[in-house]
Design goal:
The complex is a heterodimer of chains A (443) and B (283).
Chain A: E1 23-25, E2 31-35, E3 45-46, E4 53-54, E5 59-62, E6 71-72, E7 77-86, E8 92-100, H1 123-132, H2 145-149, E9 159-164, H3 173-180, H4 182-196, E10 201-206, H5 210-219, E11 226-231, H6 240-248, E12 263-267, H7 268-280, E13 286-292, E14 300-305, H8 310-316, E15 324-329, E16 336-337, E17 351-356, H9 357-360, H10 373-377, H11 384-392, H12 396-401, H13 412-416, H14 423-442
Chain B: H1 2-28, H2 35-43, H3 57-66, H4 79-90, E1 100-104, H5 125-131, H6 147-151, E2 157-160, E3 165-168, H7 178-182, E4 188-192, E5 199-202, H8 210-216, H9 226-230, E6 236-239, E7 242-245, E8 265-268
Antiparallel strand pairs in B: 1-4, 2-3, 5-8, 6-7
Classes of the chains: A alpha/beta (443), B alpha+beta (283).
Chain lengths: 443, 283
C-alpha cells in the first residue's frame, strides 16, 4: 500500500511545467546583495568591511551563536557597502553589497566534476564542516543544518528521512537535483547518516515523479541502507511533520521537534549542499531556483548565486509577461507574493513563480457557511475558521488553547474554502501573536 | 375545605422557613461593598473604553475609592472636571492634568507616497503588517486599512478617502488610547491637546536614512536636523534619522516649521502666519 499522512491534505493540480528543463548556470554580474540573516536564528555578524576584496566562497559574516549560520560570498569582487537593503517583502535587513569583478574562487574549493565517494570525516567533523560552510535547510524554513544534525542529549535519532516530496505545484528544483545529481545525493545521504549515527535512511518521494524514483532506485545497490518510500500525491506531504507521519507513522507532539519522534528530516537540496560542503569544501553560495509560470516565455531551472536580484532571473526567463498578476517567491501554496522585484535571492530560494491575473485572483470573500471543509483538510487537525474568528477579535488566550501556534501555514484551508475567506491571513496574525506571548512568558 | 387549609398552612410555613434560612445565609456570607463605589461609578462617563488602564468604569471606580492617593489616576474621557468632582466626593485630591489627544504621525498621502504594489488580503492593518512591509516604499508609514478607526469607541478617527490617512476629530477624541494600541506601526501618539487645540509635531516616523526616506515619501522626515538648530527651547531631538518634538518642552513658537525641507513638521489650528513678503511692495 502506498503511504501518506492521515490528517487532511489537498490535491492541487501538479503544474510541473519546468520539470524537464535542465539546470543552467548563471554568470554573476553587476552587484549582489547578501543578507546577513538568511536563516532562522540570530543574524550573522559581518567579518568584512567596506572596500575589502573577496573571493567566491570567502566568509563574509560569521554565525552569531549556535542557532545561526555562516554567510559566504557568492561572487568575487569588492565590498561596496554593508547597509540596509529591502528584501522581497519590502522589509529592510542588513546586507553585504558586493560589486562583481571576475569569477575568482578560493583555491581550496574543489570545482572539478569528479564525484568523491569516500567519506573520511567523523560524525563530529561532519557537523563542524556543515556549520562552517553555512548550510541551512533549503526546504523553505532555512533552519541551520548543523543544529538539526546535533541530536540533543537524552534523545536518539532512529530515522533519517530525506524530503523529496516536493509537494508544492510548479516547483521542480528538487526534482532536477534528483535527476542530475543522483550520485552526489546518495553520497550526501551517507554523510548525513554518519553524522547522526543511524544505519538507515528513507527517501520520501511522491509517486508523481516516476522518473526520479527509477533513477534513485538504479543507485540503490551501490549505496546500502537507503530505502525509497513512495508516497501518495497529497499536499502538504513535504511538511516536516506530515512527512514523518507518512514515512514512519509517528507523530511529532505539539510544540515539539522532529527529534521528539526520533526523526531527522533533510531536504534533497540540503543533502546535495551537505555533499558539496563535506566532500568538495564548497560553502552554500548557490542553489537551484525554478523560474516558472503559465505565461513565462522560457521555463528555467537556474543555478543561482545567493544575492542575485530576482529581476535578473526573470529577465533570463524572458521578462515579466504582460498579464502577470503576482510574482511569488516560493511555491504557489506557501510562497509569498513579492513587493520588490529587485530584492536579492536568499539561500533558501526555491522558485520564482509568475502568476497571471486570473490565476492569482483571490476571489471576493463572502461569509463563512460552516461547511467545515477547512477542518477536514487541515493537516495539523486545527479549526481554521475558529482560529480566524478568534484572531479577528484579539482573543489570544483562546487562540493558544486552540493551538494556533501549531499552524504550519500550508494554506490548505484557504485553498478549499468555498467562501474565499482570508483564513490564513488571520491565522498567521494570531500565530505570530501567540508565539510572541509564549516567548515573553519564557523570558 | 380541609385540604385547602392544610395546603395553605404547609406552603406558608415552608415559605417562612425558607425566608429565615435565606436571611441567615445572607447574613453569614454578606460581602461589604463601599456604597461610594456605586456613586463614583455613576459620576464616571460609563464608556468602558479602558483608557484609564482598568477593565471598565466600575473597576476604575473601585480603584478610586480604595486607593489613598488618586493623583496618578485619570479618566481621560471625563478629564480634569470629572476627576475633581470625584476627588471632592471622596475627600481626596486630584491633580489637574492637561488634556491629551491622539495624533497621527504620518503624512504619506497618496500623492507624496505613491503605491508600488497592491494588497488583496483582508482590509486589516494587523494582517498586512505580519504579511509584508506595505503597499508603498515606506516600511514605517500608515498602512491605511483603518484598524484605528475600527478600534475607536467614540467615532473620533476616520480614514480620509482622499489621502488614505486617518484623521482625528479633536472634539470627539478622548485620548483613551485604543487607536494607539490598535496601530501595528505605532504611528499614533497621545500628545497634549495644547491651548486652543494648537499643536506642533513631527508627522513622520520613518527611521531610514534621508535619501532612502525621501525616495519612498516626499513628506518624510530626513533627519537633516535643521529644526534642531532652529528650536530655542531644546525640545527637538533626533534619533535614528528621525526628529521628535517633546511636547513638555515645546512652547509652540513655530520656528521649526518653516525650516523643515519636507514639511514633515506639522502645525495644527494656528492662525495663518503674518507673511513676511519678500516680493516688492506694490505701489
Amino acid at each position: 500500500m502506498i503511504k501518506t499522512f492521515k490528517l487532511g491534505g489537498i490535491h492541487p493540480a501538479d503544474q510541473k511545467i519546468s520539470a524537464d528543463v535542465a539546470v543552467e548556470q548563471t554568470a554573476p554580474e553587476g552587484t549582489v546583495q547578501i543578507f546577513l540573516s538568511q536563516h532562522i536564528g540570530a543574524p550573522a555578524e559581518p567579518v568584512v568591511a567596506k572596500g575589502d576584496r573577496v573571493k567566491v566562497g570567502q566568509l563574509v559574516a560569521k554565525a552569531a551563536g549556535f542557532v545561526s549560520a555562516n554567510i559566504h560570498s557568492s561572487v568575487s569582487g569588492t565590498v561596496t557597502n554593508i547597509d540596509m537593503v529591502q528584501d522581497h517583502l519590502g522589509i529592510k535587513k542588513k546586507a553585504v553589497i558586493i560589486k562583481v569583478e571576475g569569477d575568482d574562487w578560493l583555491e581550496n574549493i574543489d570545482r572539478s566534476e569528479k564525484i568523491v565517494g569516500e567519506i573520511s570525516l567523523s560524525s563530529e567533523e561532519i557537523r563542524k564542516k556543515v556549520a562552517e560552510m553555512g548550510i541551512v535547510g533549503l526546504g523553505g524554513a532555512a533552519f541551520p543544518s548543523h543544529v538539526k544534525l546535533s541530536v540533543p542529549p537524552g534523545k536518539t535519532a532512529q530515522y533519517l528521512i530525506i524530503n523529496a516530496a516536493e509537494c508544492e505545484p510548479y516547483l521542480t528544483s528538487d526534482y532536477r537535483v534528483m535527476m542530475e545529481h543522483t550520485e552526489e545525493l546518495m553520497i550526501g545521504i551517507q554523510i548525513l547518516k554518519r553524522a547522526i549515527g543511524v544505519s538507515k535512511a528513507y527517501i520520501g518521494i511522491e509517486i508523481n515523479k516516476p522518473a526520479a524514483i527509477e533513477k534513485l532506485k538504479s543507485f540503490l545497490p551501490a549505496y546500502e541502507g537507503i530505502e525509497i518510500v513512495a508516497l501518495k500525491k497529497k499536499y502538504p506531504q513535504g511538511g516536516e511533520k506530515q512527512l514523518i507521519k507518512a514515512v514512519t507513522g509517528k507523530e511529532v507532539p505539539s510544540g515539539g521537534l522532529p527529534i521528539d519522534a526520533g526523526a531527522i528530516v533533510h531536504n534533497v537540496g540540503t543533502t546535495l549542499s551537505v555533499y558539496e560542503a563535506v566532500q568538495k569544501n564548497k560553502p552554500l553560495i548557490d542553489n537551484i531556483v525554478t523560474i516558472t509560470g503559465k505565461s513565462v516565455a522560457q521555463q528555467k531551472n537556474l543555478l543561482v548565486r545567493v544575492g542575485t536580484p530576482v529581476s535578473k532571473l526573470i529577465e533570463i526567463a524572458g521578462g515579466i509577461p504582460e498579464n502577470t498578476g503576482k510574482i511569488i517567491l516560493g511555491g504557489p501554496m506557501m510562497g509569498k507574493a513579492i513587493s520588490n522585484v529587485d530584492a536579492p535571492t536568499q539561500k533558501s530560494a526555491s522558485s520564482v513563480l509568475l502568476m497571471d491575473e486570473k490565476e492569482s485572483y483571490r476571489g471576493k470573500p463572502a461569509v463563512c457557511i460552516r461547511c467545515s471543509r477547512c477542518i477536514s483538510v487541515c493537516p495539523m487537525g486545527l479549526e481554521p475558521y475558529l482560529i480566524k474568528r478568534l484572531s479577528e477579535r484579539n482573543m489570544f488566550d483562546e487562540l493558544e488553547t486552540n493551538s494556533a501556534h501549531d499552524c504550519i501555514e500550508c494554506g490548505c484551508c484557504m485553498y478549499i474554502c468555498p467562501a474565499n475567506l482570508p483564513l490564513l491571513d488571520y491565522i498567521r496574525l494570531g500565530k505570530t501573536e501567540v508565539l510572541k506571548r509564549k516567548r515573553n512568558r519564557k523570558l | 375545605m380541609n385540604i385547602i387549609v392544610s395546603t395553605i398552612v404547609i406552603l406558608s410555613s415552608l415559605g417562612v422557613l425558607s425566608a429565615v434560612i435565606l436571611y441567615l445565609v445572607a447574613q453569614k456570607f454578606q460581602v461589604y461593598e463601599d456604597p461610594r463605589i456605586d456613586e463614583v461609578n455613576e459620576q464616571l462617563p460609563g464608556a468602558n473604553c479602558g483608557g484609564c488602564g482598568f477593565a471598565g468604569c466600575r473597576a476604575f471606580a473601585e480603584a478610586l475609592v480604595k486607593s489613598d492617593d488618586i493623583s496618578a489616576l485619570l479618566c481621560p474621557v471625563g478629564g480634569s472636571n470629572t476627576m475633581t468632582q470625584i476627588a471632592e466626593r471622596l475627600g481626596k485630591t486630584a491633580t489637574a492634568k492637561e488634556p491629551l489627544t491622539a495624533v497621527v504621525r504620518c503624512s504619506g498621502s497618496c500623492e507624496v507616497r505613491p503605491g508600488i504594489n497592491s494588497f488583496d488580503g483582508p482590509p486589516s492593518c494587523a494582517v498586512m503588517s505580519v504579511t509584508y512591509a506595505g503597499t508603498t516604499g515606506c516600511s514605517f508609514g500608515c498602512l491605511g486599512q483603518g484598524d484605528c478607526a475600527v478600534s475607536c469607541g467614540f467615532d473620533a478617527i476616520h480614514i480620509n478617502p482622499a489621502t488614505m490617512l486617518p484623521e482625528v476629530d479633536d472634539e470627539k477624541c478622548t485620548a483613551c488610547g485604543a487607536c494607539v494600541k490598535a496601530c501595528p506601526k505605532f504611528i499614533i501618539e497621545l500628545r497634549k491637546k495644547g491651548p486652543k487645540n494648537r499643536r506642533i509635531y513631527v508627522s513622520c516616523i520613518n527611521q531610514d536614512k534621508g535619501g532612502i526616506a525621501r525616495k519612498s515619501c516626499a513628506a518624510a522626515c530626513i533627519g537633516c536636523s535643521k529644526c534642531l538648530k532652529a528650536c530655542p527651547f531644546e525640545a527637538i531631538t533626533i534619533n535614528n534619522n528621525l526628529a521628535y518634538i517633546d511636547n513638555t518642552k515645546c512652547r509652540l513658537c513655530r520656528k521649526c516649521t518653516p525650516e523643515c525641507p519636507t514639511s514633515a513638521i506639522r502645525e495644527l489650528n494656528f492662525p495663518p502666519k503674518k507673511t513676511i513678503d519678500k516680493e516688492p511692495v506694490a505701489g
